[in-house]
């Protein structure tokens, strides 16, 4: 199973701590060795790093781990190949332009018997079901809203419809962002935590590393971390119910049709950091 990691914040924040634990799952604490990637939104731009090798031993991943790039929205992916060869063009996350914005997409799952109609504008470069799904999503949005981006609730509704349609072909856990919001769809497994004041010490589950967020944040900071399985062992991670599409904005879930109130804790009663 591939691994997903997303971050959405109300102020530009680096993801070095969470990425340190996430990176270890690519060949050290887990067996995902078929490539990894991460994308940071910076204003209207997107800084994307891709490497078709294990993240645990990747020099590029070491650069990202130690380089405090600050962003409002980040999407990362560790790949376990099911469709498509282990090659750079098949490495997530994928990037395209729509409505004058960059869109970033990463998928966890396996879609079978999935052959969407070809798009005149959005064509896959590699051979993955994930990139085909991304092109299908953007093509549908471009056709449905030809005059530009719709209101957030309408966009959420369209994405919810597409997630259900494409999810009929198999597991379709995904993260998608245009730099304004981060959308997280849970097909089988996805959870999140919101870090805000008061900030306790958090400890990684995959590395013996801790950080006291109260020393590196301000009282008004708010950060949502979305991941396949919890990254820390002393925070209350909330499981996103299968079939749910959440929109994250300013570091927390946003009520655009589905809210986080139905999400149950992913662990019994660990220390909360939210």
From TrEMBL:
Which UniProt keyword terms apply here? Answer: Glutamine amidotransferase, Glycosyltransferase, Transferase
Q: Top EC class per UniProt?
A: transferase
* Keyword Lipid biosynthesis carried by entry: no
Check the record and name the InterPro entries matching this protein: EgtC-like, GATase_2_dom, Ntn_hydrolases_N
Enzyme Commission identifier(s)? 2.4.2.-
Q: Does the keyword Transcription regulation apply?
A: no
Q: Which domain of life is it from?
A: Bacteria
Q: Name one GO molecular function term.
A: glycosyltransferase activity
Positions of the Glutamine amidotransferase type-2 domain: 2-251
Q: What is this protein called?
A: Class II glutamine amidotransferase
Species of provenance: Thauera sinica
């Amino acid at each position: 199973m591939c691994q997903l990691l997303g971050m959405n914040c109300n102020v530009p924040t680096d993801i070095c701590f969470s990425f340190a634990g996430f990176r270890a799952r690519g060949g050290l604490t887990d067996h995902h060795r078929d490539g990894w990637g991460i994308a940071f939104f910076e204003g209207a731009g997107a800084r994307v790093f891709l490497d078709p090798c294990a993240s645990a031993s990747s020099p590029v991943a070491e650069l990202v781990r130690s380089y405090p790039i600050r962003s409002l929205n980040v999407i990362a992916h560790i790949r376990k190949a099911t469709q498509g060869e282990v090659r750079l063009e098949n490495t997530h996350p994928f990037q395209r332009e729509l409505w004058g914005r960059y869109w970033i997409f990463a998928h966890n799952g396996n879609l079978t018997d999935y052959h969407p109609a070809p798009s005149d504008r959005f064509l896959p470069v590699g051979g993955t079901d994930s990139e085909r799904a991304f092109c299908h999503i953007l093509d549908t949005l471009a056709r449905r809203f030809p005059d530009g981006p719709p209101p957030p609730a309408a966009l959420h509704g369209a994405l919810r419809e597409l997630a259900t349609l494409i999810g009929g072909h198999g597991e379709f856990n995904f993260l998608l962002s245009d730099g304004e919001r981060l959308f997280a769809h849970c097909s089988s497994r996805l959870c999140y935590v919101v870090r805000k004041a008061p900030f306790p010490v958090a400890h990684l589950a995959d590395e013996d590393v801790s950080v006291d967020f109260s020393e590196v944040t301000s009282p008004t900071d708010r950060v949502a971390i979305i991941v396949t399985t919890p990254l820390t062992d002393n925070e209350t991670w909330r499981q996103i119910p299968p079939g749910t599409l959440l929109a994250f904005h300013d570091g927390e879930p946003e009520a655009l049709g589905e809210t986080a109130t139905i999400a149950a804790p992913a662990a019994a009663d660990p220390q909360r950091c939210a």
